[in-house]
Amino acid sequence: MEGSFLSELTLKQRFIASLERKDVDKVPVCSVTQTGVVELMEITGAKWPDAHYDPQKMATLAIAAHELTGLEAVRYPFCNTVMVQTLGCTITEGSFDSQPQIIDFPCKKKEDVEAISSMSGMSGHMDESVCPELARSAQGCLTIPQDLLESRRIKTVLEATDIIKNRVGDDVPVIAGILGPAGIACCLCGVKNYLRWCITKPDVLEELIALGTRVCTEYANALFDHGADAVVIIDSEAGPDLFPPPLFKSMIMPHYRSITKEMKGHSILHMCGDATDILDNMADSGFEGLSIEEKVDISYASQVVDGRACLIGNVSPAFTLLGKTPEHIKKEAKQCIEDGVGILAPGCGIAPHTPIENIRAFVAARDEYYREKKG
What we know:
Structural class: alpha/beta
CATH class: Alpha Beta
Shape: globular
Strand content: 5-15%
Order of helices and strands: HHHHHEHEEHHEHHHEHEHEHEHHEH
Distance between the termini: 23 Å
Largest sheet: 7 strands, parallel
Helix content: 40-55%
């Protein structure tokens, strides 16, 4: 793409070109993680917890983060409980400034996983010829709905996708976030079982990861069918903070490659924590974008990834966007661009009490960076 054309790119064209590692006039500035903040809720009337469960309010709050702060994409939903509640986890509904949280999970012991495996035809990997069907553990607590996409929470997000696309048109990128296969597995069996089983019962844990891969892929493709331009797979539970890095290549990578091979649209992997030790594998996973938080050094990550994926990040949402001055935010954001990010973004979800002024400063930093570079 030549210079004169680059300046005429729409937000969506620039975002997709960046994901595809093509030349752009400037890096996009957006969030590929959650964007709901209290100030936006007050302005729009689309407040948590209702905006987690009502498609109109979800769409309104997500669009507000684009229209009122300048973020160059619409990103939704605002929590990671959509899929796991559908599969049998019990959650709290959240409050005006806190997201829904898991308070109980279905797979207390390995027999619960074995029961679901035998009833759904899984043996390490789900049978690709079988759509998700009704299946229950021996206690009847873990469920795969017969029509996954008609379940209440998933249907809400799909309806919100329709609303967002209708309201913003085709010039603004629409980004949906869903929990990844390791995240789904961890939520279904609980953190203690997850940490223990990856060492003592890896075959049992792989059953859950395989289930997560299957439903994650089906859900992602439904989002694409409804108009999402990119889907972010949020899978921090596969990162070094929880999962042993030596097992990442053998237990996680095959599932990532399956997801990216089957996904119908642009793909991003988000990994919280210090993902430095698995960056090389992440870059070979098939995801076009890698969203990393501030614990990862961008300049080092750029060397490791070496053009195999678009680096996304990684201004701290808690320490910088929430708590620092606009001037400090701009300094950190400009350094991220200088260090090699392909898309400037927060390193993780934006904190609910982040001031709109700070998000606007974050966006403004991108344009200031390029003006300063021109001298």
